[in-house]
Fold this sequence. Notes:
By secondary structure, the protein is an alpha+beta fold.
Amino acid sequence: MNKPLLLYDGDCNFCRRWIERWRKITGDRVxxxxxxxxxxxxxxxxxxxxxxxxxxxxxxxxxxxxGAGWG
Length: 71
C-alpha cells in the first residue's frame, strides 16, 4: 500500500458526508473506502500497516492535506 486508507461506515449518512469533505482536503494523498465489516469508528490504515481509530484517525488523515488551507 502506497497511501493511507481511511475506512468508514458506508451505510452512515453522517460518515459519508464528512468523508466527501475530507476528500477535498486531502486530495489524492489518502484513499477512502467503506468498510466491508461493521465498524464503530473510522480506521486509518497507514502504508506501514499501522492502524489508528476514531478521532486520532481523522486528525492523522487530515495531516495529509494538500495545499496550505483546509479546503
